[in-house]
Design brief:
heterodimer; A: alpha/beta; 6 helices; elongated; B: alpha/beta; two-stranded parallel ribbon
Chain lengths: 183, 264
């Protein structure tokens, strides 16, 4: 609950923090909440400086909490020479190929991204610095994921596997890509 | 509550054009609410996007100006989280029957205890006069320069068919009867909807050469009827029935399930 009286209460005054402490409806603190760009009172504003401050704060709520928001799973990265990096449905096919490769003694790892924004550039840069691995990136899109990864991994170390015909990326397709890299 | 206590006077003047009927709807609403002896801390007014939805900002309650068409979902959340609050939705014809149309019918189907007041001026005023699902057939709009080829919803029948347990229609030309309809809706336990025929002289009136705001009110008087006259827009209460209210029954059901009894 707010520490000031209802007449002094500014619902969207965040002080040095990023998140306004909104009093619950019915608590005696009556205020206005709006989906429009708003000031500290909660009412719409078209003041450019206020709007910019609001948008930067909203973005900061994401960017400054990267560590809490970013989720991924990593498999066998330590000695990896090739790393599959995938998000969504291609993960399952990639995981099967990665496991089978390990079974054959090939040094293959996998990173499953479970969130896309904020993008884990620091993780990928660290993994690349430690392993110098090639990254195979299967995606049901036109290469946007590989493009994003190229901000933290050199382009020449990225092999994109794209599919845009309505079918899923299957293990055989990834097996072939892996064979190409290992040769 | 006095009329004055319910307004945030420091937010005046309002954005509505001269001659707009929205202030008349708001005024009828406040007169109805003033009788209810509610604590303003326990009143929540939720609105969507559009001219009418700006009303929430002028009211000294717990107010929430939501995204387009989503006033009812937000209101549903508030009612479920805080059943002790009186939750009222102020919305327009575009907001509640186009982008928010599905929310409207499903809230009616649930019979959740909300009072929804639809300011029906037959047009999207804020964005300069596009036709809405309540624009009459062949009337002109910015996006219907040759006439609106679609037929409008009859909002009363839509709400009735969807399961609303209180449905009424009023008009700004009849402010006292309108106040009574809103008052009855506020007293109803369950989903209540009041459609209010109101005038937009700036867009709907100008496009359709309906004259001044006074002429538009005169048009309403000539074209509405509280006694069911043939060929006129009927005003009055069309549905008033009792059916289990969603929130209270939901919590009872949840309790049963938690106690291991199967729901009925």
């Amino acid at each position: 609950m707010p520490t000031v009286s209802p007449s002094e209460y500014l619902p969207y005054a965040t002080g040095d923090g990023l998140i306004p402490k909104l009093a619950p409806f019915g608590s005696g603190y009556r205020y206005h909440m709006s989906g429009l760009s708003h000031d500290e009172t909660g009412f719409p504003t078209s003041n450019p400086a206020t709007i910019e401050k609001l948008l930067i704060r909203l973005n900061d709520k994401i960017e400054k909490n990267r560590k809490d928001i970013i989720k991924y799973k990593a498999y066998d990265l330590d000695d990896a020479q090739v790393i599959f990096l995938a998000y969504g449905s291609p993960v399952r096919s990639a995981l099967q190929v990665q496991k089978e490769a390990r079974g054959r003694g090939e040094k293959v790892g996998l990173i499953q991204l479970q969130t896309l924004w904020p993008f884990p550039h620091e993780l990928l840069a660290d993994v690349f610095a430690a392993t110098k691995a090639n990254f195979i990136i299967p995606e049901l899109s036109l290469g946007q994921l590989a493009d994003e990864v190229s901000k933290s991994v050199p382009r020449e170390k990225i092999i994109g596997v794209k599919r845009n015909d309505g079918a899923l990326i299957n293990p055989a397709q990834l097996e072939q890509a892996l064979k190409g890299v290992l040769q | 509550m006095t009329y004055k206590q319910m307004l945030r006077e420091n937010k005046m003047p309002h954005i509505w054009c001269p001659g707009c009927g929205h202030g008349m709807v708001l005024s009828a609403f406040l007169r109805a609410l003033a009788e209810k002896e509610l604590d303003p801390n326990n009143v929540a007014v939720i609105s969507g996007i559009g001219c009418s939805s700006r009303a929430s900002g002028y009211l000294d309650f717990n107010t929430l100006h939501t995204t387009h068409g989503r006033a009812i979902p937000f209101a549903t959340g508030i009612k479920m989280a805080k059943p002790e609050l009186k939750v009222i939705v102020l919305t327009g014809d575009g907001d509640s029957t186009a982008i928010g149309g599905n929310h409207l019918i499903h809230a009616a189907r649930r019979n959740i205890d909300l009072t929804v007041i639809v300011f029906n001026n037959s047009i999207y005023g804020m964005t300069s006069g596009q036709y809405s699902p309540l624009t009459p057939h062949m009337k002109l709009a910015t996006t219907a320069p040759y006439g609106n080829f679609d037929y409008p919803f009859d909002l009363v029948n839509l709400a009735k068919g969807a399961g609303a347990t209180f449905v009424a229609r009023g008009a700004t030309a009849q402010p006292r009867p309108l106040e009574k309809l809103i008052s009855q809706a506020l007293d109803h336990n369950g989903f209540s909807l009041v459609e209010v025929v109101t005038q937009c002289p700036t867009y709907f009136g100008r496009k359709n050469k309906m004259g001044s705001p006074v002429d538009m009110l005169q048009w309403q008087k000539e074209n509405t009827s509280s006694s069911g006259k043939e060929g006129k827009i009927p005003l009055g209460v069309f549905v008033q029935e009792e059916r289990p209210e969603y929130g209270a029954n939901y919590f009872q059901h949840a309790k049963k399930v938690a106690e291991g009894k199967s729901g009925e």
